[in-house]
Design goal:
With 187 residues, the protein is α/β, with parallel strands linked by helices. It has one domain: Rossmann fold, CATH 3.40.50. The protein has 5 helices and 12 strands.
Length: 187
């Protein structure tokens, strides 16, 4: 594991690796991470899971969402509300009705947005550019997930998904408002 001086230096380095990995490797590793997620007791007990719509080389969540729906889970995705600087969890009925939203991330169409209250969510799958041994995460720099995660009741499991190269010893410049996850699944 490598140490980085700044968050931006780390973000740039990991994003380059994410974007340059072979697609077949990304998908194969994503399926292994999916298996770990589906084996988690917290996941098996959950009724509603808030996923993220993977993009830009991230661990693929679309196959996870499809499989979760097949086994009876309700699925949510965040919608970025840029004017309010937050994400709004929404229920997703059809994964093929997503549109490109803020930052190029797929999200439900305005017509299909059905808000999902935090009290309706059992587990949150959290994106990250990097994670460290203490389960701190480095996001894309907007703070959207940190602001959202701090509003969740403590009993809701938060799970980061990462490839092995996204795990580092320590995320630099951690701030008081940076919010860790409760689990990180790695392959």
């Amino acid at each position: 594991m490598i140490e980085y001086a700044t968050k931006q230096e780390l973000r740039d380095k990991i994003l380059t690796i994410l974007r340059n990995q072979k697609e077949e490797d990304r998908l194969a590793k994503s399926l292994m991470i999916q298996d770990k997620l589906f084996e988690m007791r917290e996941f098996r007990k959950s009724g509603t899971v808030l996923f993220y719509a993977s993009f830009d080389g991230e661990v693929d969540t679309f196959e996870m969402m499809k499989k979760a729906k097949k086994i009876g889970k309700k699925i949510g995705l965040p919608v970025v509300v840029r004017e309010k600087n937050k994400i709004m969890p929404t229920f997703v009925e059809y994964l093929d009705n997503l549109q490109e939203g803020v930052f190029g991330i797929k999200q439900p169409t305005e017509r299909d947005c059905k808000p999902l209250g935090v009290n309706e969510i059992d587990m949150v799958i959290v994106p990250g550019i990097a994670f460290d041994k203490a389960k701190n995460r480095l996001g894309r720099g907007g703070g959207y997930y940190d602001r959202f995660l701090c509003t969740l009741p403590s009993h809701i499991s938060t799970v980061g998904l990462a490839f092995d190269f996204q795990m580092i010893d320590h995320i630099p410049q951690q701030k008081e408002h940076d919010f860790p996850v409760s689990h990180v699944l790695v392959n």
